[in-house]
């Protein structure tokens, strides 16, 4: 069950609040795939772990940490934990499906019964206390069990962000994102310049030999891992590259490149500090104010895959805050459904439970739950974007200003407790559900007045 996504990473000195930020759209197929927001307490962590896809049974360490996650509501195909923050304020998002090439796969084939996106979060996040430790634990698992797909994974703590990509069946490489930079990863190989001697680069121990022995480096000079392990296909030009281009041109005023450029940067520097609101806009974007906007009045003949899309299952921005107590440092921002028609909520991660309207998502439509009301609103809004845009914008603004106010009030309490944070999360969930219900009512009324099946004379 392949999930295609978009990832954005922001170093602590590049963010508006001094937080590290790792964010990702979890995208699936066109059909609905209901999502849940849960806390996995130590007693609920599987031991041993059983992978549905591969059939592997993997023993796990004792004493797992508590962590948040956004698994599938239907566990038939596995857990698919997607992203979360553990009780040591370490975050992980997994995974960004990426591309590779036949040269690599010919010498290190994918492992049909290996590990993959279904498994990674559950196997790693409860057992790490830093971003770098996440890279090393997952790297060890990849070397031992292999993987059946090519993926990018991000880890963060309050100081560092690391981004990791799998190579063939058993190899991997990871790079530390500079504190003053951001990175954008669509569904292609992303890491470019790499230095095996740098403390900011980690990789499989035999990766230099693997590259040299198999004559994988096409460049005369330097080590560009995208050139070595990635692809540069027509699909990349239209499906992947434009997403990176849109993010770069939004965040960097000096960025002048073409959407289809095969060598767009992975790591870059923004013109201004990057906010959570910026990330939400970008992860919801559909090439606004360009000829490529599918909702635009004039649409280019070039069709690019947008970031905000009907396949968005959920979006998380995992924020690890500095200059606040440990107890309130982790914020699991979350929105369900297609991003053009939803709103983010900053849930505290240091809790033992989540609000029922996010936690208990049924597998069939029920608008008492945030996943489903978000999907219904997206479907209505997509039918006539111009008609409903003001309603959606007002909804998103109202939600954001109020949940931020609730967060600030909670932050200011002298001794925040688990009970306090749970209550704050519930209040935010109650507020957005009420606002989403109001939006649904307003959208139905507005749409009814504009239906084609109407007549100017009444009975």
From TrEMBL:
Reactions this protein catalyses: an L-aminoacyl-L-amino acid + H2O = 2 an L-alpha-amino acid
GO BP terms, alphabetized: proteolysis
UniProt keyword Chloroplast present: no
InterPro entries: C69_dipept_A-like, Peptidase_C69
UniProt-listed Gene3D superfamilies: Penicillin V Acylase, Chain A
EC number(s) from the headed UniProt entry: 3.4.-.-
Alphabetically ordered keywords of this record: Dipeptidase, Hydrolase, Protease
GO MF entries: cysteine-type exopeptidase activity; dipeptidase activity
Record-stated family: Belongs to the peptidase C69 family.
Protein name from the UniProt record: Dipeptidase
Organism: Pediococcus acidilactici DSM 20284
Gene: pepDA5
């Amino acid at each position: 069950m392949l999930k295609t996504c978009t990832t954005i990473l922001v170093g602590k000195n590049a963010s508006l609040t001094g937080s590290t930020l790792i964010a990702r759209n979890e995208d699936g197929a066109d059909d609905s795939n209901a999502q849940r927001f849960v806390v996995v307490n130590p007693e609920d962590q599987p031991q041993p772990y059983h992978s549905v896809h591969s059939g592997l049974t993997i023993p796990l360490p004792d004493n797992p940490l508590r962590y948040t996650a956004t698994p599938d509501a239907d566990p038939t195909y596995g857990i698919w934990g997607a992203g979360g923050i553990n009780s040591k304020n370490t975050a992980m998002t997994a995974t960004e499906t990426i591309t590779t090439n036949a040269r690599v796969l010919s010498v290190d084939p994918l492992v049909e019964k290996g590990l993959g996106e279904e498994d990674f979060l559950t196997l790693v996040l409860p057992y790490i206390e830093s971003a770098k430790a996440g890279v090393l634990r997952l790297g060890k698992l990849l070397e031992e069990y292999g993987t059946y797909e090519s993926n990018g994974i991000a880890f963060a703590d309050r100081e560092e962000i690391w981004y990791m990509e799998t190579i063939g069946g058993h190899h991997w490489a990871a790079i530390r994102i500079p504190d003053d930079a951001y990175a954008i990863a669509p569904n292609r190989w992303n890491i470019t310049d790499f230095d095996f001697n740098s403390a900011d680069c980690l990789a499989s121990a035999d990766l230099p030999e693997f590259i040299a022995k198999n004559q994988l480096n096409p460049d005369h000079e330097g080590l560009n891992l995208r050139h070595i392990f990635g692809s540069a296909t027509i699909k990349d030009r239209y499906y992947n590259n434009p997403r990176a281009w849109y993010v770069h041109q939004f965040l960097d005023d000096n960025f002048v490149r073409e959407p289809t450029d095969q060598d767009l940067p992975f790591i870059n520097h923004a013109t201004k500090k990057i906010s959570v609101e910026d990330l939400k806009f970008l992860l919801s974007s559909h090439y606004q104010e360009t000829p490529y906007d599918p909702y635009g009045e004039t649409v280019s003949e070039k069709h690019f895959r947008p970031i905000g899309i009907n396949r968005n299952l959920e979006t998380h921005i995992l924020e690890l805050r500095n200059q606040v107590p440990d107890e309130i440092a982790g914020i699991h921002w979350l929105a369900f459904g297609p991003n053009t028609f939803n709103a983010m909520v900053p849930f505290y991660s240091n809790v033992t439970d989540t609000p029922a309207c996010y936690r208990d998502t049924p597998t069939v439509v029920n608008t008492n739950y945030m996943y489903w009301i978000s999907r219904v609103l997206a479907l209505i809004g997509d039918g006539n974007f111009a008609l409903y845009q003001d309603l959606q914008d007002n909804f998103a603004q109202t939600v954001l200003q109020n949940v931020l106010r609730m967060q600030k009030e909670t932050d200011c309490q002298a001794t925040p407790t688990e009970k306090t944070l749970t209550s704050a999360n519930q209040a935010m969930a109650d507020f957005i559900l009420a606002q989403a219900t109001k939006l649904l009512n307003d959208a139905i009324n507005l749409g009814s007045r504009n239906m084609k099946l109407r007549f100017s004379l009444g009975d």
